[in-house]
Amino acid sequence: MAEKPQPVKVLYCAVCSLPAEYCEFGPDFEKCKPWLLRNAPELYPDLLKDANGKEADKVSEQFQSVGISSGGGRDGAASTAPPGDSSSSKPEEVKRLPGGKVKKKDKQEVVIEKVVRNKRKCITVVKGLELFGIKLSDASKKLGKKFATGASVVKGPTDKEQIDVQGDISLDIVEFLTETWPDVPEAAIYFIEDGKKVPVV
Predict the structure, then answer these.
(1) Nearest 5°: phi and psi at 169?
(2) Of all residues in the chain, what percent carry a pLDDT higher than 70?
(3) Residue 115, SS3?
């Protein structure tokens, strides 16, 4: 008769709570590395080699700072490269989304779109003014006064705030934006026509 299968014991990471063999695919693998070296070195032999190499480099650096040479110019040159690598990983601390994806920074651009509703009425949507440090509430008041129409700040479909201006003012708004706020260059203003982003210039 066949033996009963025994349950598999899974080692979970204390940092990211994933199984240890999946830590490298998690959002914070750099934070998991010390824990993995202590508790599961057999799963990541490359980490063990890197850690031993870094320790050897630290010892040789300490010898050099005291004045004792480590035995060759080549080793000293090689030992300066890994600390540079570790310092380059520190600035990498960027905002990460769930799943480990890096959040992209928004480009500084103003997007103007004309939306037609009820076959007659138009709304001009202005997005991206806040990226230039402009308060949207002040901008909507100025747009409403300049074009004698209703303008309001609303949340768009991507949960970002935008300005909705009643009427088709897409041709006159570019000149108004560049004159009122000199920080907004004309090259950073785009129209959306037929679903494509077209530069004004």
Answers:
(1) -115, 20
(2) 72
(3) strand
Listed in sequence order, the residues at least 6 apart from 131 whose beta carbon sits closer than 8 Å to its beta carbon are 106, 107, 108, 109
Structure tokens at 67: 């004045």
Total-model pTM = 0.47
Mean pLDDT, all residues of the chain: 77
Tell me which residue of 175, 162, 164, 165 sits closest to 201, measured CA to CA: 175
- Residue 86 pLDDT exceeds 50: no
Q: Vertex 51, ends 45 and 57: CA angle to 5°? A: 140
| Six-digit token string for 103 | 């959040």
Do the Cβ atoms of 159 and 80 come closer than 8 Å? Answer: no
- CA nearest to 125, candidates 11, 73, 117: 117
Q: Please give the sequence-ordered ranges of beta strands (E in DSSP) within the chain, or none if there are none.
A: 110-117, 121-127, 151-155, 161-166, 189-193, 196-199
